[in-house]
Protein: Radial spoke head 1 homolog
Amino acid sequence: EYDGDRNAEGERHGFGKARLPNGDTYEGEYERGLRSGRGTYRFKNGALYTGDYLQNKKHGKGVFFYPDGSKYAGDWVHDQRQGYGEYLYANGDTYTGEWAGNKRHGQGTYVYKDTGSKYVGTWVNGIQEGPAELIHLNHRFKGRFLNGKPLGRGKFIFNIGCEQHGEYIQPVQEKEEEEEDEPPVPAEPKWKASEITKLTPWSPHDEEPAPGEG
Structure:
């Protein structure tokens, strides 16, 4: 069912309202029979998108309300979250930053609602990876992440005004004689402290080896 403007060829063109066979509805702009321009699309499952369209795809800026109560507001490219946007998750966590192919990718800040902790740094395909800072209520960790876990050199900075330097080391997996063919659970990287200092300017970007090292 369609109620709205058409062009000389009889295609939907201009402003209109449509009910799709699957029960979804769209109200907004059309161009030559396709959703193009600004519009609001209501899904039968309770989801809703309001924003820009280009040739039937979400493209430009728009807000998507998901059925679980989460929502994304930001850039879209060909129906995917891409560019810059803010996502509010159903559990109250938020991510603000860069996206590519529907995933967190690039620079971004993720805030954990339960603890108030924040991850500020780099993401690769939805996973925390690269230089970052993990900020807690009375201290923070500055270092690098790999596969969502801190790894390598870093430091804890305490609000009382000192730092603990060290590194996260991936423990060597002990091989055990197992009957079942279960994949081993990857061991958590272990923090190995080296020294406590007053505040220093070291950052995870300073990875240049010192002269005489390497």
